[in-house]
Structures are given as structure tokens and as C-alpha cells.
Amino acid sequence: MKKVLYIELENCIGCRSCLAACTQCGGHEQRNRNYVIDVNPFVDRQTMPMMCLHCENPPCARSCPVQAIQVHETGAVLSAMTEKCLGCQNCTIACPYGIPKFDVEQNLMYKCDLCIDRTKDGIPPMCASVCPTNTLQWVTEEELAVKKSQFRLNNGMMASMEDPYLENKTNVHVSLPGILEGKEKLF
Amino acid sequence: MDKNNKIPFDEDNYTHNINKSNERKLDRRGFMKTMVGAAGLFAVSTLPWGSIAATELMGLREKKYPKKEIIDVKKLNIGDAFEFAYPTDHDSALLVRLGENEYKAYQNACTHLRCPVFWEQSKSELVCPCHHGFFDVKTGSPTAGPPRRPLPEITIQVEAGKIVATGVKRYET
Lengths: 187, 173
What we know:
The structure holds two protein chains of two kinds. Chain A is built from six helices and seven strands, in the order E-H-E-E-H-H-E-E-H-H-E-H-E.
């Protein structure tokens, strides 16, 4: 049963539980790999989790001169292999979301690997397992299709998922906020 | 071209692989095993040459040559030479009597371009007239001129007053 991470951006309340979970996760050494950003700083309070979307054609891995960033069978783009990473920071420049972070002390890149030790066995990643508002959801493909169908407008257009990908095709699916016509949102 | 329009474009090579499942299986130990195995294979593959060399060195594959009478001892004065053909009629050879019981015989096709080498009695050396090659009569090895290999020596026996050719010595560097 292949499950995917689905991000319902409108639900985010900025509690930063995902950050705390990621920070305290074993092996992360008190460094978080996802971020909560203000959508419109100083304008409103809306926040959104910004985590690695695990592109199908990941620019970070493409830009890596030594192929230290590898794509797992599940589609997750892994963190840099420490034995390969040069610390050239190409990936941090290439990523359109600014996900890969550079550890100056170790001279290595680290990024979200979708908690691959958990998700390869179908267990949700830490951030999704702690999210109190269902912003981060660990859903099957069928559930995802149902969620997508809920956002159809009367004119058959897609409201929130007209352009379902921010930059390119990703394995993490995002519901971009849109105008909903009389649809009450179900989490 | 078309490769870049597929996302992700399919790559099946070792130099730009980013798929974890497509990672190379060759680690250092495997590499070392491969190298040592290849070295062993090469070592084993040289054994036939060793056996060939051994048979040659132990003389197990000596050519058999027919005995052939050349000339009576009385007919050949000391310092004279006599042309004959050995082992076949097409291999011209030269017999030189150097002393009372000292004979030397060589196949006299020059080792440069196979001109017939003759015996220059006044200078007591073997001369090839075509390009002025000179051979030492004692050993058959070249002393001057273009030839670089010795003339093949023919082994000689004296039997009942006749000089008999018994074989051709192998060429050895």
C-alpha cells in the first residue's frame, strides 16, 4: 500500500509541531529539515510548512557533481550520502524551495529524506505523524484522488489544484489554497 | 533532444546515476577481487607457453634430420670450402675445412636477404657479396654488414673417411 505525503496548506496554524518533531527525531542531531514560513509576513498570520517535496526530477540530485543525493525506490529524494558529499552547495542553489541546508562544520549538506527508514515501511514521517491540524497527511493514492475530486468547481475547472505542482512534478502532493464554491472542506 | 523532454529522463548509466536502486554493486573489495582474479586468469593463461618452452628446453621436440654424405675427407683440403645442399635440395649449404679435424658447415643463405654466402679463403671469413655482410666462420655469427643473425650451423661428423651432415642446430638468440 503505497502512501504519499499530502499537504493541505490551508490547515496550517503555525504551531511548528512538525519542526519540533523533525528536530527531535533520532539521527537528526537537533537539526530540523523542514521549515514553517509566513505566507504574507506582516500582512496576515497565515503560515505554511515548507518541506522537501521530493521532486520526480530533483534539481538537487541533478546538480550534484558526485551523485551524492539519491532517489529511493519510493520516490523519496534522500539526504546527501556523507561519504560522497563534497560540500559544494550546488544543491542548495539548485533547489527552488531552498530545502537543502549546509552544515558548515561538517562540510556536508543535509535535507529531509521523508524519514525514509519509516516511510519505506509505510509508517508516516515524523512531521505528518505529529501534525495536529491535518496539514501534513499520510494518505493512500485513492484517498488523494478523493481529496483532489473535492476541489472541482461547478464549471469543471480545478480551483485549488489547477496547477497542482509548485515548480515541477513532485512525490509530495500539495493542495494550493483556492476559492471553494460551497464546498465544505473535509480534512 | 528527446531525452531531455522526458521527466525524469531515463538514464541507465554508471556515471550520472541518482537512483538508489541503480547504485553500482562494485565496492572496493569487489574491485580488488576482480583485479586479483583477472591477474590470476592472466597468470594461468601463460602456462601453455611455459609448457611449450619447457619442451623446447628439454629437447623433447628436436627435429629429426636425415644423415647425408657430403664429400670425402681426402677431396677437401684444409682451408677449402665445398657447397652442398642440406637438409633438402633447396637449402644450399657451405662446408669449410678449417683444420685437420675441424670442420664447419653452415646453411649459407645470408640472414639478411638470403644471398648465397661464400668462403673468402684469403681473409678466412664468410662473405655475402650482395650487401657486404661478413660472418665469423667459427660461430657463424655476423661480424659486419646488414645481417644480424647467425647462419644456421649444420652439425658434422666424420664417418669412415666421409664427411656426413647429421642435422641443423636450432637458431637461438
